[in-house]
Amino acid sequence: MHKDVDYVTPDTPLKKVAKIIFGHKHTGFPVVDPVSRKLIGFLTDQDILAKCFPSVREYMEDVVHAQDFSAMEKKLKEILNLNVEKVMSKKVVSVREDEFVLRAISKMKVKDIARLPVVDDGKKLVGIITKREIFRALIGKYV
Questions:
Q1: pLDDT at 4
Q2: How many CB atoms sit inside 10 A of residue 64's CB?
Q3: 12, 44, 63, 90: which could join 8 in a potential S-S bond, CB 3.0 to 4.6 Å?
Q4: pLDDT of residue 20
Q5: How far apart, in whole angstroms, are the C-alpha atoms of residue 117 and residue 28?
Q6: Is the CA virtual torsion 49, 19, 124, 139 positive or negative?
Q7: Per-residue model confidence (pLDDT) at position 67
């Protein structure tokens, strides 16, 4: 697990997160409360892109305009002015630092995610683990 974890806070502007994604080649970040450092969400590049598309309600109310892809792309400027809290996933899958590595990979497979935040018993962010790290930890001792 990486203990030196990049993270964002709920009030971080999405434009700043987008720059970090490009600069660090990350595709997502844990969202932590700035005071308690507790994990409260997760934000990915896909969460940002998903905001371009209309909600089901918007689609039902105006099918024709809801399929206007040009308007969706123009909406990106507005979206990038939002803060993380408006876009982040609040139902975060995480693992505790004392859980079995196979439990972590199991959660990743079931939820189709590539990395998991690692938290302590108080839900404070202590690290992040990736599929690649799990592979190396499990298989590395046999090769």
A1: 86
A2: 6
A3: 12
A4: 87
A5: 11
A6: positive
A7: 65
Alpha helices by DSSP H, the chain: 14-24, 45-50, 56-61, 63-66, 69-80, 101-111, 131-139
- Give average pLDDT by consecutive 10-residue segment, the chain, 143 residues: 89 92 83 95 90 62 62 78 94 93 93 93 94 89 83
Cα separation, 95 vs 102, in Å, equals 11
Packing angle between helix 69-80 and helix 14-24, nearest 10 degrees? 100
Per-domain residue ranges for the chain? 14-142
CA-based nearest residue to 14, from 93, 99, 79, 103: 79
User: Is residue 31 within 8 Å of residue 42, measured between CB atoms?
Assistant: yes
Fold topology of 14-142:
CBS-domain (3.10.580)
Contact, 72 vs 55, CB < 8 A? no
Judge contact between 8 and 82, C-beta under 8 A: no
- Is this model's pTM higher than 0.85 or not? no
C-beta separation of 62 from 55 below 8 A: no
What is the model's pLDDT at position 66?
A: 57
